Amino acid sequence: MTEIMYNPVSRLASISARLIIGFAVLLGLLFAVAAVPLQRLEDLTARTRDIVDRQAQLVILSQRANQHAQAAAIGLLNLMQTAERDARVPQYAAMDAELAAADMAVAGLEKAMLSPAVRTDIERIADLRQRYGDLFQQTVELIEIEGTAAARRHFEDRTQKVLNTLLFETQALESQLQQAMQAELGELRQITTNARRLVILLATGALVAGIAMAWAIARSIVVPVRKAVAVAERIAGGDYKTAVPPGRGDEIGALLGSLTTMRDSIASREEKISRLAYVDLLTGLPNRTRFLEILGLLPAGSTGAVVMLDINRFAPINNALGHGVGDRLLREFAARLCQVQGEGCTLARLWGDQFVLLLQDVDRTTAALQAERILAALRAPMMVDGQRLDIDASLGIAMYPQAGEDSAALLRRAELAMTRAKRRHEGHAFSNDDESEAAHEELSLIGEMREALARGDFLVHYQPKLHLAQKRIASAEALLRWRHPEKGMIPPGNFIPFAEQTGFIREVTPWVLARVIADAAQWRRDGIAVIASANLSALDLLNRDLVSTVRRLLDESALPPDRLCLEITESALMDDPELALKHLNELAAIGVKLSIDDYGSGQASLAYVKTLPVHELKIDRIFVDGVDTDSKNAAIVRSTILLCRELGLSVVAEGAETPQELAWLGENGCDLVQGYVVARPMPLDDFLARVRAQALPVTG
Ligand code: C2E
Ligand code: MG
Ligand code: MG
C-alpha cells in the first residue's frame, strides 16, 4: 500500500501558482508582441520625419543654390545687354539679392550634418560659389569700366565656366542628396519589413509558447486528476488494495493523499462491518452466519462432522453469579475449545452458550473420540473471577453428508442430537441414522405445524395410570399426537422438540390444556373419577400467561383444580428456576396437582424436589426397565418410593412393560404404574371404554 504524504512546501508549485505563472507569462508575451512593434513604429516615424525634414531641406537648399546662381547669371547677361548705366543700377540690387540667397543656401548646406563625402562636395560648391562671386564682381566691374563687350568676353571666358561648374555641382549635389534620401527610405522600408517579420515571429512564438504552456499546465492537472478518478472508481468498486499513485506537493497531491486516507478508512470500516456481521464479539469466534457460510462452502462430496455443544445448566450459573461471570465463563469455555480443537477444525459460537465445531474429514469413530476429548477438557474446573466452576457440556454430532447436505439441516440435526444427549445425560449423541433419512421431512414439518393446529390435525391420546392399591385407573396422561394427512400419525418426539425450539409450543400447550380440561370436565360430569395429566415444557413454565390460562380454562369448564395434574420435567426448571418456581407455586395455590416427570433422568435430587410444590413423582422409564431383575434399578426405585412416602408424594412408575415389573412395583409399594403393561396411549373413546369396563367406583 503506497503511503502518500502531502507536503505543502514543495519544489513543485501548486496548481493555482502554476496557473498564475502561466497566465502571467502569456500576458508578458502578449505585451512583448505589442510593445516591440510599437517601439519600431515610433523609430520609423522619427526617421521618416527626419528624412522629410532634413533631407528634403537639403535638397531644397541645393536647388535654391542652383536656382539663385542661375538667376544671378541671367541678371548678369541682362546687365551686359543694358547700355545705359542708369538702367543697370537697379539691376545690381536684384543680382546681389540672388547671390546672397545662393550664399544663404550654400551656408545652410554647410551647416547641415552630412556625410564626409557630401560635406566635401558642399565645400567644393562653396568654393565654386566664392570663385563665381569673385568672377561675377569682376564681370560687373568690367561692364562699368571697359564696357559690355569686354565684360562679355570675361564672362564667356571665365565667369560662365565657373557658373556652369557651380550649376553642375549643385545639380549633382541635389541628385546625390535625393539618392541618399531614397537610400534612407529604402532602409526604412527594410526596417519596416524586419519589424513586421519580428512581430509575426513574436506573435507566432507567443502562440506556440502559449499552446505549449496551456498543454503542459492542463497535462499536469488532467493526468493526475484522471488517475485520481480511476483510483476513486476502483475504491468505489471495493478494491481497497489498489495503489494510489504518488502525489506531488500540489492540490492533486493533497487529493490523492485524501484518497489514500479515504481508501484506508473505508477498508477498515468495511472490515469492522464484516467483523460485526461474521464475528461473535464476546468470544471473537465466527458467528452463526459465518459458520453457515463456511458449511456452505464445503466442496461437494466432502465428509466430516458438525458437532454442536452447549453448557449444561448455564442459565442457573448465569442467573446466580451474574452476567459478567457468565460472559467470562463463555470466553473461558471458548478458549478451552480452541485449545483442544485439532487441525482443520472450525469453531463458532451460535448464541448464548451454544457452540458448534466443524470437524472435516473425520469418520464416526474419530468424531466420537474428538467429542470425548473435548468433554474431558471442558470438565476440568474453571476459575472465573476467583470462583471455581465445575461445568459440563452436552455434544450432538451430525455426520455429513449422511445427516443432510444443507447447512441448516446439519445444524438442526446436530442440535437434536445434542438435546438428546442432554436429556439422557450422555456426553455426546449422534444424530440418528434413521432420523437422518427423515431429516428433510422433519424440517418441513416445522413449517406445517401452525397450519396443522389450525386445521385440527392435532389430537390427544390418553394413557392410563393404574392405581395399584385401588386396582383402578386413577388418572391418565394426555399425550399429543399429530395426524398428518400424508405421513400418518406422528409421535410427539418428532415435533415437540421443534415446537419448543421455535417457540410454537406456546400455542400448542394452551390448545392441549383446553382439550384436556374439557375432557376432564366431561369425565367428571359422567361420574368418572380420573385425574387428567398434561405435559408442560420449559418454555411453558416461563410463560407469564400460563397460570392465568389454566385458571381461565378451569373456570370456563367448572373443573375442580385437583382434577388436573401438570407434568413438568426437572430440566424444564433449569433455565430460569426462580420464574418457574413462582409459576409452580401459583399453580399449586390454585389447587392444581403437579408432577415431576422422568424423575432420575435429570440432575435434581430428592432434596431439591422437596422444595417444589409437587404432589407426584414419576420415576423415569430407564429405572423401571427390568426393575424385577436389575438389582441396581430395584435399589433406586425402592429407595425413591420410600423417600417419596416420607415426603408425602405419590409415586408413578413410568414405562412398566412386563407383568413381572408390575408385580414387583406392587410388592414394593409403588402407588401408580403407567406403562404398556397397563395400556398404551389410546384415543379418548378407547380410553373411556377401557375405564368404563373396569366398573370402577363412581365419585363426585
Ligand atoms: P412423557 O411425558 O414422559 O410421556 C410418556 C411417554 O412414554 C409417552 O411417549 C408414552 O407413550 C411412553 N410410554 C408409556 N409407557 C411406555 C412403556 O411401557 N414403554 C415405552 N417404551 N414407552 C412408554 P410419547 O407419547 O411418545 O411422548 C413422548 C414425550 O413427548 C412425552 O414424554 C412428553 O415429554 C412429550 N409430550 C407428549 N405430549 C405432550 C404435550 O402435549 N406437551 C408437551 N409439552 N410434551 C408432550
Ligand atoms: Mg409426561
Ligand atoms: Mg415421562
Element layout with pairings:
Elements: H1 15-81, H2 85-111, H3 116-145, H4 148-236, H5 251-278, H6 288-296, E1 304-311, H7 314-321, H8 323-340, E2 345-351, E3 354-360, H9 364-379, E4 382-384, E5 387-389, E6 393-400, H10 407-424, E7 428-430, H11 433-437, H12 439-455, E8 458-467, E9 472-484, E10 488-490, H13 496-502, H14 505-525, E11 531-535, H15 538-541, H16 546-557, E12 564-569, H17 577-590, E13 593-599, H18 606-610, E14 616-619, H19 621-624, H20 631-647, E15 650-654, H21 659-667, E16 672-674, E17 682-683, H22 684-693
Helix pairs in contact: 1-2, 1-3, 1-4, 2-3, 3-4, 4-5, 7-8, 8-9, 14-16, 16-17
The structure holds ligand C2E and magnesium ion (MG) (2 copies).
What form results from the Cα inertia axes? rod-shaped
What is the correct CATH architecture of the largest domain? Answer: Alpha-Beta Barrel
Number of strands: 17
Describe the strand arrangement of the main beta sheet, using strand numbers: 8-9-11-12-13-14-15-16
Helix count, per DSSP?
Answer: 22
CATH fold-level name of the largest domain = TIM Barrel
Q: Rounded to an integer, what's the Rg over CA atoms?
A: 66 Å
How many discrete domains?
3
Share of helical residues: 55-70%
- Which class do the helix and strand fractions yield? alpha/beta
End-to-end separation = 89 Å
Mean of residue pLDDT?
Answer: 85
Largest sheet: 8 strands, mixed, barrel
Q: Name the CATH class of the largest domain.
A: Alpha Beta
Bound molecules: ligand C2E, magnesium ion
What fraction strand?
5-15%
Query: Could you give me the name of the CATH homologous superfamily of the largest domain?
Result: EAL domain
- What ranges have pLDDT less than 50 throughout 5 or more consecutive residues? 1-11, 696-700
